[in-house]
Design brief:
Helices cover 40% and strands 16% of the residues. With 154 residues, the protein is an alpha/beta fold. The chain has a 5-stranded mixed sheet with strand order 3-2-4-1-5. α2 packs across α3. The relative contact order is 0.22.
């Protein structure tokens, strides 16, 4: 004679509760953890807006100028930061590993160098504010009058 174990008896009763518990947990990248990013230029820069593909071209070293002809120099968040990973996922549809591989190839073939990095949104905002040629991305909450958003990343 075979008797069911305690786990076998309780599993059908607990399954709905476990499912509800899992649904209540925050998802990675959900609104609770994901900050809204904005691509910024100096308030002194005449540029009003950019499309995501234009931003991608600048950050991937494909172009070195803004649409109006002015120099464009990209400034990245630190490698491994959530902002950087989110930015490249939204603007270039690339994972951190794909971005690293892209830049390894560009450097190896002599076709480009990756953007300079800054340690935080505050540091990027200050550098961009002081130089109309720079373009960066920061948390929307870090915006102030010294810079202006040219693309909102949702």
């Amino acid at each position: 004679m075979h008797f069911p174990t305690l786990c076998q008896l309780l599993a059908p009763l607990l399954a709905p509760f476990i499912a509800l518990l899992l649904l209540a947990l925050p998802m990675p990248g959900a609104a609770a953890g994901a900050a809204e990013l904005v691509v910024i230029v100096s308030a002194k820069n005449p540029l009003a807006a950019l499309r995501a593909d234009q931003v991608a071209d600048i950050f991937l070293g494909q172009v070195g100028h803004f649409p109006d002809g002015g120099d464009a120099v990209a400034l990245d968040q630190a490698i491994g930061s959530a902002q950087r990973d989110e930015f490249y996922a939204k603007v270039t549809a690339r994972t951190p590993a794909q971005v690293k591989a892209y830049w390894s190839k560009m450097v190896f073939t002599g076709r480009g160098q990756p953007p300079r990095e800054a340690p935080s949104s505050a540091a990027i905002r200050k550098l961009v504010a002081d130089n109309p040629a720079l373009i960066g991305y920061i948390d929307r909450s870090a915006l102030d009058a010294s810079v202006k958003p040219v693309l909102m990343l949702h």
